């Protein structure tokens, strides 16, 4: 019988990387015209840029919380949502997406550490453990990736 921890870790990695039953974060942001990145469709509260940044900030916070007991999270909710509707330039857009991808890989490395404990609550926090944080990254990113696709549909930029 396979090591249960290895099976759970493999499933978590697949969940965090996305795909399978839905579009990935990379699919959702791919080839979005620059002029649409800051557009807020009618009756919607945010732009694609704001969602991308929200995903980036939240994932960074979860990663740092999971590996650094001294990490201080931003204030909720204002610290997790950018005020600007659009990136300042193409480089800001590219860097935000690159950071999401880099820090996703950094989080996945935590799951590969020898003797990793998914279940014991961290000494800091209020009962969180690595399993919960991994599922939180996957769930949060998936949810907002779906919203990015909805916004792209509303903007006429999704097939």
TrEMBL record:
Pfam families linked: DinB_2
Lineage: superkingdom: Bacteria
Domain DinB-like: 22-148
InterPro entries: DinB-like, DinB/YfiT-like
Protein name, per record: DinB superfamily protein
Organism of derivation: Chitinophaga rupis
Organism classification: Bacteria, Pseudomonadati, Bacteroidota, Chitinophagia, Chitinophagales
């Amino acid at each position: 019988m396979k090591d249960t921890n290895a099976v759970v870790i493999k499933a978590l990695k697949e969940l965090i990387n996305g795909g399978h039953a839905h579009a990935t974060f990379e699919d959702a942001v791919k080839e979005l015209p620059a002029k649409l990145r800051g557009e807020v469709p009618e009756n919607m509260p945010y732009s694609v840029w704001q969602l991308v940044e929200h995903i980036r900030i939240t994932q960074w916070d979860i990663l740092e919380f999971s590996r650094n007991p001294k990490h201080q999270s931003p204030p909720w909710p204002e610290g997790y949502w950018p005020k600007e509707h659009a990136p300042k330039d193409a480089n800001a857009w590219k860097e935000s997406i690159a950071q999401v991808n880099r820090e996703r890989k950094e989080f996945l490395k935590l799951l590969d550490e020898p003797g990793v404990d998914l279940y014991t609550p961290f000494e800091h926090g209020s009962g969180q453990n690595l399993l919960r944080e991994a599922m939180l990254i996957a769930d949060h990113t998936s949810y907002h990736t779906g919203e990015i696709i909805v916004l792209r549909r509303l903007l006429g930029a999704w097939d």
